């Protein structure tokens, strides 16, 4: 699933291209993806902003009525495909399944005017076996359950060391699971939890409540530095380049059998919540191999 650095890059990419444009059409190609009664409230609205909320994107728009939000939950394998000129109809986009196509007016702040046949837009796609990308059309983004339950965001300047300590206090939950719990901490998934725990020199399976003061300090520093650096690395990249760039910059995630860049030990793999997770035994588990 896209995590906060990649979703932030997608939000910025879209904001540069769609703010100020009108939504001229929404084609739902995969009906189960739409979790709201209709997309009609979006038609004719002018887009006013694009923001990231955890691992979701929130596109806000205004029309003659109340403001409306198009909120996208990417699921496990959702993604975005931009079109300078939207294809006619709802033909499948590449190898992924087309979930929805959003058509925009040709008039934009920086891209210049265009005729109806040249109007831009973007596709929401899902390449997974189980199609989990979800689309919500709401007056308030907090009406989306995944937004309403979001915990603090580590990329927020208000995410202090004390704020993290309060999240960890008394939690008998394994640390990797807690980092991936969106109601505890927003925006982190399997990949960045591996990277953060490696940088903090912490075991993925230690209970959160067991961390010492020094370990909480290291975890806070790692969360802030890993995610902030990733945001800067992805900024300005087109959607089609984001996934490869993310993979190329991972230090332990998806690198089993390779040498740890810190100590030279072999990066190991274990199964965590049904997914492959990665760690360095020397740096993180006192040499103990996780089952």
Automatic annotation (TrEMBL):
Gene3D superfamilies: 1.10.8.50, MutM-like, N-terminal. One of its GO terms (molecular function) is DNA-(apurinic or apyrimidinic site) endonuclease activity. It catalyses: Hydrolysis of DNA containing ring-opened 7-methylguanine residues, releasing 2,6-diamino-4-hydroxy-5-(N-methyl)formamidopyrimidine. Belongs to the FPG family. Keywords: DNA damage, DNA repair, DNA-binding, Glycosidase, Hydrolase, Lyase, Metal-binding, Multifunctional enzyme, Zinc, Zinc-finger. This is Fpg/Nei family DNA glycosylase. SUPFAM superfamilies: Glucocorticoid receptor-like (DNA-binding domain), N-terminal domain of MutM-like DNA repair proteins, S13-like H2TH domain. Its cofactor is Zn(2+). Residues 2-106 form the Formamidopyrimidine-DNA glycosylase catalytic domain. It comes from Microbacterium rhizomatis. InterPro entries: FPG_cat (IPR012319), FPG_N (IPR035937), H2TH_FPG (IPR015886), Ribosomal_uS13-like_H2TH (IPR010979), Znf_DNA_glyclase/AP_lyase (IPR000214), Znf_FPG/IleRS (IPR010663). Coiled coil: none annotated. One of its GO terms (biological process) is base-excision repair. It holds the Pfam family Fapy_DNA_glyco. Residues 251-285 form the FPG-type domain.
